[in-house]
Amino acid sequence: MIYSEVTTIVLMLLILSGAFYSLFSLLFIVEFFRPKRQQLQETLSPPVSVIKPLKGPDPELRENLQSFCRQDYPDCEILLGFTDPNDDAITWAKEVAASSPDCDIRTVISQSDEGANPKVSNLKGLIKVARYPLVAISDGDMRVKPSYLKIIVKEYQSGENVGLVTSLYAIPNPASIGAALESLTIALDFIPSVLVARRLEGVTFGLGASMLLSKEAIEKIGGFSGIADYLADDYQIGNRLWKKGYRIVLSEYVIEDVVGTMSIADYLTHQIRWARTYRACRPKGFLGYGITHIFPYSFFFLMLQGPTIFSLSLLCGVLLLRLTLALVLYKKVIRIKKWLRWLPLIPVKDLLSFSIWVWSFFGRTVFWKRRCFVIMKGGRIKEK
């Protein structure tokens, strides 16, 4: 009896905390995506080296790379990096370069073995041959519009001591159930968490979808060698710049993430990797992230109390709050009607997200690019 009462109180506290978090995240989302009254002033357009560390043929890789070749920007080069000379995607990269004669695009093969994270070795090889002081780093599964570089460069020049401009991302047109679950997770969990963190403590990290920074800034944090044994290289770059006193700007430009027909197993593998990496890098923040699982808590409350008017009303209220968040993000970010057909998956996604959050505490093993790693304290990794 006492156990049941204590459980009920704990669940109600979690639901109330999660409800306040959801309401604040809604407020911060509307605030961030509100149309700006004043456009950024015209600034110089310094040349930019776009470096893309690649491994394997990502879904729709050709189209993704071609989108970077169509930038409405006066002077940029695109470097496509590989660490394996036999990588299947090299052929695709060369085909894109051959089909874009007006684009300064090159393929770079670097066989250095810098540390446990092969992507960092790739980045180190790319930065050596990049011609320009300003560098934009972007993953291979990202697709952009012609205005991408123009926007982030202006934001980089928008104030004093800006060390990094980084971008949110979204999957607006998922092609499978797994991709839809990933899309909903990014929209309903990831984007709100970033905007809440931005509002409460400032942006203290980078996001791998896009990072614009200078070679000088990279050198001041010890270069890429210092993060070679970390899985979350994007987080480390941003966090180390922040600790050096640089300001990190979250761009208004949201990048399209193309994941193809992601399977449910791929979705679970990716989310477990993300959760365990987050827990290692920000243990207190990850523990606090537990209050965001508002639907599972209201569902457990219903199971504990039975289908009473109060428990059913509470569950419906929570679902309405989640749906409102989804519709706001649809209007502000997604803007593709086909995405709305996946909204009935929200309760399933929320239960899976809670299960992944709990499961992440019971191990340190993750899988990435067909390799198995163990995440250690602080986010360091070693191959298993």
Q: Can you give a write-up of this model?
A:
The protein has 384 residues and is an alpha/beta fold. It has two domains: 144 residues, no CATH class; 176 residues, Spore Coat Polysaccharide Biosynthesis Protein SpsA, Chain A, CATH 3.90.550. Strands 3-2-1-4-8-6-9 form a seven-stranded mixed sheet, with helices on both faces. Helix 1 packs across helix 6 and helix 1 packs parallel to helix 12. It is globular, with a radius of gyration of 21 Å. The model has no long low-confidence stretch (mean pLDDT 92).
Write a compact overview of the structure shown.
It contains 13 helices and 13 strands. It has 384 residues and is an alpha/beta fold.
Low-confidence stretches: none
Order of strands across the biggest sheet? 3-2-1-4-8-6-9
Name the CATH homologous superfamily of the largest domain.
Spore Coat Polysaccharide Biosynthesis Protein SpsA, Chain A
CATH class type of the largest domain: Alpha Beta
Which structural class best describes the helix and strand composition? alpha/beta
Domain count: the total is 2
Overall mean pLDDT: 92
How would a textbook summarize the main sheet? 7 strands, mixed
Per CATH, which architecture of the largest domain? Alpha-Beta Complex
Q: How many strands?
A: 13
Distance linking N and C termini: 46 Å
Give the helix proportion (percent range): 40-55%
Which sequence of SSEs, written as H and E, runs from N to C?
HEHEHEHEEHEEHEHHEEHHHHHEEE
Q: Beta fraction of the residues?
A: 5-15%
Radius of gyration: 21 Å
**What is the 3D shape?**
globular
